[in-house]
Write a structure and sequence with these properties.
This protein is of the alpha/beta class. The protein is built from four helices and 13 strands. The strands form three sheets. Strands 5-6-9-10-12-11 form a six-stranded mixed β-sheet. The chain is globular and about 45 Å long.
């Protein structure tokens, strides 16, 4: 299975200079936020794969004009193509109450989702806008990661933690991929390809898969 990961800056390769067929190889697209709604709608229209997203701290316009044809999974646990994906959008609160959270508020969101995570037997991908504290975040307050993400990663040990918020342009030496125990942490800035071998996809019990399935995926 091939995934296209997106965040923070529209890719000229996929939009301004798009050529037919460039999206045909992807089975799933995941957006970590701070991208224009028209861009995401374009990608899901031109591609053959579903597009799931969480909002970034700048996505205030999503409230009234969300990306058409895409699914917001903020605050939800969904199963798509055999992958259990938890969505947690937003950043640390530094200015606006929209898509920005204090550490306590984000910890409360996670606490409310724990029963669903246990019933589902865990998760495979954590899709967030913000990184975790100390793992791909930055020194300025607005780009600090959430410390409450760390116990979540330790308890459920997802295979991937995909985030945005910290632009690759903030530092040329900033790594795009980190490893924390069994979890591969990926900064999805602009675009990033992730390929998961089919033999590594989780084999969920049929009843559990039906319970968590969303839409026609």
């Amino acid at each position: 299975m091939k995934l296209l990961l997106l965040s923070d800056e529209e890719s000229p390769y996929l939009w301004d200079y798009y050529q037919p067929g460039r999206l045909s190889e992807y089975d799933l697209m995941l957006s970590c936020g701070d991208l224009s709604a028209s861009y995401l709608s374009f990608l899901v229209t031109m591609g053959r794969a579903p597009l799931l997203y969480v909002p970034g701290n700048h996505d205030v316009k999503y409230e009234n004009a969300p990306p058409e044809g895409c699914d917001c999974i903020d605050g939800q646990l969904v199963t798509v193509k055999g992958l259990r994906i938890l969505g947690l959008g937003g950043s640390i609160r530094y200015s606006s109450p929209v898509h920005q959270y204090t550490e306590r508020q984000m910890a409360r969101r996670i606490r409310r989702l724990r029963p669903a995570l246990r019933r589902a037997g865990g998760l495979d991908i954590l899709l967030a806008h913000s990184p975790a504290e100390g793992w791909g975040d930055d020194e300025d307050y607005a780009h600090q990661g959430f410390s409450c993400f760390l116990p979540l990663l330790d308890e459920f040990q997802p295979r991937y933690f995909i985030h945005g918020h910290v632009h690759a342009s903030y530092g040329a030496s900033r790594p795009r991929v980190l490893q924390r125990g069994p979890t591969t942490i990926i900064n999805a800035y602009e675009r990033f390809e992730l390929e998961i071998p089919n033999e590594e996809l989780p084999d969920l019990p049929p009843m559990r898969r039906r319970f968590w399935q969303r839409g026609p995926y």
